[in-house]
Automatic annotation (TrEMBL):
GO terms for biological process: methylation. Keywords: Methyltransferase, Transferase. The gene is yhdJ. One of its GO terms (molecular function) is N-methyltransferase activity. It is an enzyme of class 2 (transferase). Its EC number is 2.1.1.-. Belongs to the N(4)/N(6)-methyltransferase family. Residues 40-246 form the DNA methylase N-4/N-6 domain. It comes from the Bacteria. This is Methyltransferase. The keyword Transferase applies. It comes from Allorhodopirellula heiligendammensis. It holds the Pfam family N6_N4_Mtase.
């Protein structure tokens, strides 16, 4: 009898013009990619936080991240886990990411302030070299905190596999990116703005294969296709796999 995870691994990729979309667990799909074949991992992984305390952390993603009055969207996998389970999952994913990345490949991984240290530890423990952090400033429309500071920033960990590749036209990105969060017509509970992803994509060397192990609704893929990169997206939640696939198909038209 084949387990559900193995069935997902066997699901054939949806192929487009310069892109592929997989439905399955990230570590399983990544294990089928060739060593050193990837030029960039740009992803918004599940943070496994969203609140303080185990009960709140393991609540549904719609409970943790859905704002009042927002449309109900499908739950997404990997976030409502105990800390130990989240760490075990992410460790497998980052080990596979390191293997498939070529020398000089870059990593850009989103996290919030709670997930910053554990995420950075996961990334560097497998061999990636930490190169800094990019701040996403969401602006004053972000959630306020009573008697505290507005939750208007998220962080993008920047790392590489070894020495960065030389580029004929060097890239100089801003360390703080100002971009209002997406409010209307969201396709994913924690969907990132296309404008933000389009800016981050520029960090990948020309001609790089970009992989997003947690592609959600496919924003990274849309930005990659628009910029002329090849792209592989992986998504465990079937509903979001379908949304991302449709989005990638539309992006190549």
């Amino acid at each position: 009898m084949i387990c559900e995870a193995c069935k997902r691994k066997q699901t054939a990729a949806v192929n487009g013009n310069g892109w592929k979309a997989y439905h399955g667990k990230s570590e399983h799909v990544l294990s089928d990619l060739a060593d050193g074949s990837v030029g960039a991992v740009i992803t918004d992984p599940p943070y496994g936080t969203g609140a303080n305390g185990v009960t709140a952390r393991t609540a549904s993603t719609s409970t943790k991240y859905r704002t009042t009055g927002a449309a109900e969207l499908p739950e997404f996998a990997g976030d409502s886990l105990l800390p130990e389970a989240w760490s075990a999952m992410m460790s497998k994913v980052w080990r596979e990411c390191y293997r498939v990345c070529g020398e000089g490949a870059v990593v850009l991984a989103f996290c919030d302030w709670r997930a910053f240290h554990p995420m950075l530890t996961q990334i560097t423990s497998v061999g990636f070299k930490s190169r800094g952090v990019v701040v996403w400033n969401k602006g004053r429309g972000a959630r306020p905190t009573k008697n505290g500071f507005r939750a208007q920033s998220e962080f993008i960990i920047y790392a590489s596999k070894g020495k960065l590749r030389e580029r004929p036209n060097p890239f100089y990105g801003d360390g703080v990116i100002n971009c209002t969060t997406k409010v209307n017509n969201k396709r994913h509970t924690t969907e990132k703005p296309l404008q933000l992803m389009a800016e981050l994509i520029k960090c990948a060397a020309p001609g790089a294969l970009i992989v997003d192990p947690f592609q959600g609704s496919g924003t990274t893929g849309e930005a990659a296709i628009a910029a002329g990169y090849e792209f592989i997206g992986i998504e465990e939640t079937e509903a979001y796999h379908k949304i991302a696939t449709e989005r990638l198909r539309n992006a190549e038209r």
